[in-house]
Amino acid sequence: MAISSTFSGAKLERLLINSCSSPSASSLRACSLSHQQMKAFSKPNRGRKALAQRTGGVRCEVAQSDAINEGDKMDPSKASALSALEQLKTSAADRYTKERSSIVVIGLSVHTAPVEMREKLAIPEAEWPRAIAELCGLNHIEEAAVLSTCNRMEIYVVALSQHRGVKEVTEWMSKTSGIPVSEICEHRFLLYNKDATQHIFEVSAGLDSLVLGEGQILAQVKQVVKVGQGVVGFGRNISGLFKHAITVGKRVRTETNIAAGAVSVSSAAVELALMKLPESSHATARMLVIGAGKMGKLVIKHLVAKGCTKMVVVNRSEEKVAAIHEEMQGVEIIYRPLTDMLACSAEADVVFTSTASETPLFLKEHVKDLPPVSSEVGGLRLFVDISVPRNVGSCVSDVEGARLYNVDDLKEVVAANKEDRLRKAMEAQAIIAEESKQFEAWRDSLETVPTIKKLRAYAERIRVAELEKCLSKMGEDIPKKTRRAVDDLSRGIVNKLLHGPMQHLRCDGSDDRTLSETLENMHALNRMFGLESDISLFEQKIRAKVEQSQK
């Protein structure tokens, strides 16, 4: 496995320090690093004192003396002569050079957790880069991405260790949300590698949404990639996973009828409201939409699609409402400022809320004094809240004459066509299975990338050296055309010789070659051409750091 650059420095230091607490002889020997050697793994301003504090006052020198006392047969001079490399190989850090990192998803969704929990865990889009940086700062996390919507809060990571990675991310979620770890564990779901890949593909395809095939989730997955571009920690594996998920989402919608009749959360909110109103009042019910952002605009569009020709829109500014009004020709859209919200609610039969407010806009005291609605619309004022965090407090449900629905209640709308949903989902699953295989093959192929690069570099060094010998023998006055021809000839010979080995190092699912065969070929080439392994390169870096610290 290739050693990630994020494994060096502070993370390596932490892993080595953690190994000091292990009672095993090998771990004790690993802790016998001298003060100068340990400095090679740490940041420049971290000395022995800081290391001792972080390990609860346990010093590696003590562990070393204990280990020597424990093994009477060990020659002290030999123990002190142990190189930093040998100590590293016997330390806890060594196991991470033998494992392949895992893709893990730690998530809570509308299927597993109540909205009260999801809104505490929600991370605004503007905070995603900060969250990625904090997650990648954890000991066992190499890459990360955040997918936070009204229906789900999912964190995707590449973890050096599955168990420790999940533990660290869960504790981070608890710290940022204020929710106890035990409560998060009760509602979370965990998926690894192929299962994690299949999950994000299903999410992007709309199979995991409340409303089958809804297009909004695909746009949200695209936004994860857009926000992640250039963010340290949104690495090759996670970036490749989300980009492939976008491809899957597009393909599923193109090749199946999954989007036919499927709607967004906003559309489901409109359908839910119409289900609760008497059919005779659909054309006359007074509609109020609070918030003219993306969700609010979709609510307005779906109301118009259902035959509504007049509505009031409350928003902070008039510009967005005016733009929507201009787009919706023939529909009466009346703008009201946010200060008129309660007055407008008093004149509405149905109130849709979709703002980014972090505090409720409606509580029991705001609703209880509103005038009753007509019996023609069922005698109940409907509040349909599709915001996370919620715009309408749950206490509004206690008010006589009012009914409150939030995103969790949209399940009722989705239940309408179960048989058709399952049929379309089966069609989509066949595509997802095919795409999952391709993604796993791509990820497997990354294993051989370092060897491919090293083999090319090895061949190029030989080519350049032999070319220089040849040109020197030909004299200094050879024409440029001849020089170029000889150079092209050498490149052509090298490329033709490398073509066969390179083909046998590729594992992209385009042929019947298995990953194990490809890895066997990789190891064979490493042996035949004396190519340095990833671990030996890592060891050279450590040796260089130790030598530099001893100067």
From TrEMBL:
Domain Quinate/shikimate 5-dehydrogenase/glutamyl-tRNA reductase: 272-413
GO molecular function annotations of the record: glutamyl-tRNA reductase activity; NADP binding
Keywords (A to Z) from UniProt: Chlorophyll biosynthesis, NADP, Oxidoreductase, Porphyrin biosynthesis
The keyword NADP belongs to this UniProt entry's keyword annotation: yes
Ranges for domain Tetrapyrrole biosynthesis glutamyl-tRNA reductase dimerisation: 427-531
Superkingdom classification of source: Eukaryota
Domain Glutamyl-tRNA reductase N-terminal: 106-256
GO BP terms in the entry: chlorophyll biosynthetic process; protoporphyrinogen IX biosynthetic process
Pathway: Porphyrin-containing compound metabolism; chlorophyll biosynthesis; Porphyrin-containing compound metabolism; protoporphyrin-IX biosynthesis; 5-aminolevulinate from L-glutamyl-tRNA(Glu): step 1/2
Reactions performed catalytically: (S)-4-amino-5-oxopentanoate + tRNA(Glu) + NADP(+) = L-glutamyl-tRNA(Glu) + NADPH + H(+)
Enzyme Commission number, as recorded: 1.2.1.70
Enzyme class: oxidoreductase
Similarity comment: family membership: Belongs to the glutamyl-tRNA reductase family.
PANTHER family: GLUTAMYL-TRNA REDUCTASE 1, CHLOROPLASTIC
Full protein name: Glutamyl-tRNA reductase
Organism: Gossypium raimondii (Peruvian cotton)
